[in-house]
UniProtKB/TrEMBL annotation, chains A, B:
Domain of life: Bacteria
Alphabetized InterPro entries for the sequence: HTH_HxlR, WH-like_DNA-bd_sf, WH_DNA-bd_sf
Keyword Phosphoprotein: no
Gene3D superfamilies in alphabetical order: Winged helix-like DNA-binding domain superfamily/Winged helix DNA-binding domain
Statement: the UniProt record of this protein carries the keyword Transcription regulation: yes
HTH hxlR-type domain sequence ranges: 10-113
Protein's name in the database: Helix-turn-helix transcriptional regulator
Origin species: Niastella soli
Pfam family, one: HxlR
Keywords: DNA-binding, Transcription, Transcription regulation
DNA sequence: TAGGGCACTTTCCTAAAGGAAAGTAGTACC
DNA sequence: GGTACTACTTTCCTTTAGGAAAGTGCCCTA
C-alpha cells in the first residue's frame, strides 16, 4: 500500500503546536514564570530563587519571554536605579495549557512506572496564584 | 528584598510538565502520530509520508513513542513477514493537549505578527480522526 | 544467482543548547 | 581609593539533537 500524505492543514497544525512548544520550552522558562508569580521581580532575586540557573541563561530566557510578551521588563528610574520583571496578563493564557500538561504528566508517570506519585491538590494553579508562599 | 523560593509542590509540577513535553517533543513525533492516524502502518510508508525524515530518526522516534505506550509495534508473522505500527487508544488522551497547544500557537502568531493566519476549522481533531484523506 | 524490497543500524558530521567561570559598567557606600 | 552590589556579557567548553550516506540481514521473485 502506498503511503498516505497528511493534508496540508495538518502540517499547519503541527507548525502551530511547535510554535507553542517553542515558547514554553527551554529548560528554565517555567521556573522563571513561577518565580515571577510568587513575587520575585529583580534579576538577582530570580536567579537566587532558581537553584542551578546561571546569569547567562537567565538573561537569555528573560529576553525570550519578553519577546513573546509573557513578561515585561521595566526600568525604575529613581535611586538606585532598578530593573523589574513582571509577568503580563497574557501569561495567564498559558495556565490552562500548563495545567493540562502537568495533569497528563502526572498520570503518565503513574501509567509508566505504575506507582503512586501523589500530590496534594495544590497545582500550578496555586503556584501561579498572585501571592505565593 | 530576599528572593522567594518556590514551594516544592511547584517544582514537582514543573517536573510533571517537563515529563509531558519530553513525550511530545522531538521534531517528528507529531508528524508520526498524524501519519499513523491517517492510516499508515508500515515503516517505509510512514517514512514516505513524512518528507525529510530519515530512517534513523524514524526508528528512534518510533521506539520512544512505543516506550511511552502511545503506539504499538506488531509483528505479523505470515509471509512475507510484516511489521505494523498502530497508535494506541492512550494516544487519544493527548488530543486535548495538542488541540490546546495548536490553538494557543495560532493565536500567538496572530498576536506577535499581528497578521491573520486563518485556517479552515479542520484542526488536529480532524487530522487525528480515524480515517484521513 | 542477481536484484529488489523491507526494516532497520552504523558511522560520521554539524548546529544548537546549555553551563562554568570570569569580566564589566554603572552606582553607591565607607 | 577600595570594596560591594546589580544586571548583565563574554569566552570557552561539553552535551545533545538531528541529519546524510552507506551498510546489513533477511526474505522473495525472476
Amino acid at each position: 500500500m502506498a503511503a498516505k500524505k497528511a493534508k496540508p492543514v495538518c502540517l499547519d497544525s503541527v507548525k502551530a503546536v511547535r510554535d507553542t512548544l517553542e515558547v514554553i520550552n527551554g529548560k528554565w522558562k517555567l521556573d522563571i514564570l513561577i518565580s515571577l508569580s510568587i513575587g520575585n521581580e529583580r534579576f538577582t532575586d530570580i536567579q537566587d530563587s532558581i537553584p542551578g540557573i546561571t546569569p547567562k541563561i537567565l538573561a537569555k530566557e528573560l529576553k525570550e519571554l519578553e519577546q513573546h510578551q509573557l513578561i515585561k521588563r521595566t526600568i525604575i528610574d529613581d535611586y538606585p536605579i532598578k530593573i523589574v520583571y513582571r509577568s503580563e496578563n497574557y501569561a495567564h493564557t498559558l495556565h490552562p495549557i500548563i495545567y493540562a500538561l502537568k495533569e497528563w504528566g502526572l498520570n503518565h508517570r503513574k501509567k509508566i512506572f505504575n506507582k503512586g506519585y501523589v500530590e496534594t491538590d495544590a497545582a500550578i494553579a496555586s503556584c501561579m496564584s498572585e501571592e505565593g508562599t
